[in-house]
Amino acid sequence: MMQTATSSRVSRARSRARIVVMMLCAAAALSFASGGSPAAAPIAVAVADFDYFDTSGEVVDQSAEHRARVAAFAALLRDNLSAQGDYRVVRIECPDHPCTATSMSQDLFIAAARKAGARLVIYGGIRKMSTLVQWGEIQLLDLEAEKLLMRRTVTFRGDNDAAYRHAANFVSDTLKESMPKP
After folding, report:
1. 172/179 Cα distance (integer angstroms)
2. CA 81, CA 142: separation in Å to the nearest integer?
3. DSSP string for 70-126
4. How far is it, in rounded angstroms, from Cα 43 to Cα 69?
5. What pLDDT, on the 0 to 100 scale, is given for residue 78?
6. Which residues on neighbouring strands pair with residue 135, listed in sequence order?
7. pLDDT grade for 139, boundaries at 50, 70 and 90
8. How confident is the model at residue 155 (pLDDT cuts 50, 70, 90)?
């Protein structure tokens, strides 16, 4: 009788051990299926203000409208990158606004982006050629690798809010293709 009780206890212990092993295997499988590790921290990216040049020669002074559109362009880039979740947008602080790559020396601009905690910095400018045609130059710099990851010229038609929004959305998508993932 004693041997049967011992056998029964051993059998129950083995059953419990099998259940524990199966639960551990199931937990490991679920962890592996979901990526196996916690999500990587988002990459810090600074989106500088953009320079604006109007070489169209138009008689009407639209500088206030253009400043607002260029500011909205940069803000939309920041919002689009933040919304993706892979990037954390940080602000560059500079003594004078707008805070563009040409409003300070290259060394001060890079130092300000690094001070903000950015690994990547996006900067550039928009040039109005005529009422219908504008073009922008967008650059993406990896501060950690000290490497220019992208330099792209984009053109867009129109000189209104909708044209700038459309251009900013296009540029956001283009940037995401060139940006490293966490």
Report:
1. 10
2. 16
3. HHHHHHHHHHHHHHHSSEEEEPPP-SSSS--TTSS-HHHHHHHHHHTT-SEEEEEEE
4. 27
5. 96
6. 127, 155
7. very high
8. very high
| Tokens, residue 74 | 């940069």
The end-to-end CA distance of the chain, in Å, is 63
Can you read off the two tokens belonging to residue 78? 């920041």
DSSP codes of every residue in 37-59 = SPPPPPEEEEEPPPEEEE-S--S
Question: Is the model's pTM score more than 0.90?
Answer: no
Average pLDDT on 52-73 reads: 93
Token output for 29? 């499988």
Count of CA atoms in the C-beta half-sphere (13 A) of 7: 4
Closest among 125, 128, 126 to 60, alpha carbons compared: 128
**74: phi then psi, degrees, rounded to nearest 5:** -65, -40
- Residue of 15, 97, 82, 81 lying closest to 49 (CA atoms): 97
Encoding tokens for residue 152? 């792209």
Which of 52, 37, 71, 43 has its CA nearest to residue 176? 43
Six-digit token string for 145: 């690798």
**Angstrom distances, CA of residue 174 to CA of 140, 149, 153:** 11, 12, 11
